[in-house]
Amino acid sequence: MSMKLLGKGICPYLKQTNCILNHLNIYGCNIGNEGFLKLSDAVVQNHSLVILNIGSNSISGMQSANAIIRILKECFNILDLNISSNNMGNLSMSRIFTHLFIQGASICNLDISNCGITQIQCGTDNGRFKMGLPLQSFNFSGNILKQTLTTIMQDL
């Protein structure tokens, strides 16, 4: 997907007040961080979004993690979130996890497979990690997780 298509087509459409979009699937479009940040500014305008699939788009880093969190805060109806195959790494995913599991979200299906995660910490106190999500599907495959997350998940 080109930046031109994002900037002149999809993003302005999503920002329209009469735009009702329930399912956004841009898996494998390789929009990168710059494209995702543009898209996220438009997506937060759409409060009808239920499914967001941004997997395999070369998204990484804290700025993109913060954009994902902003989307989750603004689009509180999102039930399915796929951020798989983006090299988010430990710090970015820890920030997202803090939002999902401590601050709360309504996600039922979460796919973070192949995100380059080796350990996850939620907030500053792992004891605060609570399963508040109504998860039906949780995909961690393809990440090399250490004991930290395994222990936390067993405690749930």
Low-confidence stretches: 124-129
Mean pLDDT: 83
Give me the count of strands: 5
CATH superfamily: Ribonuclease Inhibitor
Question: Structural class, judged by helices and strands?
Answer: alpha/beta
Proportion of residues in β-strands: 5-15%
Looking at this protein, list some descriptive labels.
single chain, 156 residues, alpha/beta, Leucine-rich repeat, LRR (right-handed beta-alpha superhelix), 5-stranded parallel beta sheet, 5 strands, 40% helix, globular
Characterize the structure shown:
The chain has a single domain, classed as Leucine-rich repeat, LRR (right-handed beta-alpha superhelix) (Alpha-Beta Horseshoe). Helix 1 (3-15) packs parallel to helix 2 and helix 3 (61-74) packs parallel to helix 4 (89-103). It has 156 residues and is α/β, with parallel strands linked by helices. A 5-stranded parallel sheet has the order 1-2-3-4-5, with no helix packed on it. The protein contains 5 helices and 5 strands. 40% of the residues lie in helices and 10% in strands. The protein has helices spanning 3-15, 32-43, 61-74, 89-103, 147-155; strands spanning 23-25, 51-53, 80-82, 109-111, 137-139. Mean pLDDT is 83; it is low at 124-129.
